[in-house]
Amino acid sequence: MRRKSFNLVGHTHFLTFSCYKRYQIFTDASACRLLAESLHEARLRLRFALWSYVFMPDHVHLLLMPGEDKYSMATILKQIKGPFGKWLVEDWKARHPHLLRRHAVASGSGTVFRVWERGGGFDRNLYTREHICRAVEYIEANPVRKGLVVNPVDWLWSSARARAGVEDVPIHIDAISWDEVELQQTVDHSQKRGSDL
Ligand code: NI
User: Looking at the domain assignment, is residue 150 inside a domain?
Assistant: First the structure.
């Protein structure tokens, strides 16, 4: 992680991670479906709530709330990104071997295929209504800012459609637990963070 984050109860995490060398992996619908599947399985296994997301061509934003009191963002990220990476490499081996070449990195005596940028990406703790609202807006407006669509709901791979009530969406989102968020605003965060800052 380039930015320190904290595995604190009741905190929302705003995650950003990018494709290796910013290659545009997610212009391919089957890559999007594989990431959706990986995210779905991680969500079932680790019981986090997904509040917002967008798959951009070369990066991903997620806003999630871990469901367990004891959680590790490193584990959550690994379970989302890891299976996807393996499946994508298998898929490309069969369908697009030429695409795989640019992801090949020498490792020891062999070759590994790098799908994600190294370093894990960014992880920000959010714990106020204002910051969470702003993050959702930022995430869902990303395809509009990049000129990919006119309205957020026009982008298939974001939570904007589900939020607008569209039922046929590839990934369902969870309702934001505002009660939990409000509760967090009463906690003194500077104390909890301690010397980590
Ligand atoms: Ni972005």
Answer: yes
- C-alpha of residue 186 to centroid of ligand 1, in Å: 30
Range of the domain at 151: 12-196
Q: Which pLDDT score, from 0 to 100, does residue 197 have?
A: 36
Please give the Cα distance from 123 to 37 (Å, whole number): 21
Domain containing residue 102: CATH number: 3.30.70.1290
User: Is residue 92 in some structural domain?
Assistant: yes
Confidence of residue 196 (pLDDT cuts 50, 70, 90): very low
Q: How far is the CA of 76 from the centre of ligand 1 (A)?
A: 20
**Domains of the chain: total:** 1
Measure 140 CA to ligand 1 centroid, in angstroms: 9
Residue pLDDT, tens place only, 49-105 = 999 999 999 999 999 999 888 889 999 999 999 999 999 999 999 998 998 999 999
Please give the residue that has the higher pLDDT: either 142 or 186: 142
Burial of 114 (0-12, 13-18, 19+ CB in 10 A): middle
Asked if 17 contacts 117 with a C-beta cutoff of 8 angstroms, the reply is yes
In a domain, 43, yes or no: yes
In a domain, 2, yes or no: no
Distances (CA, A) of 110 to 104, 161, 186: 10, 43, 52
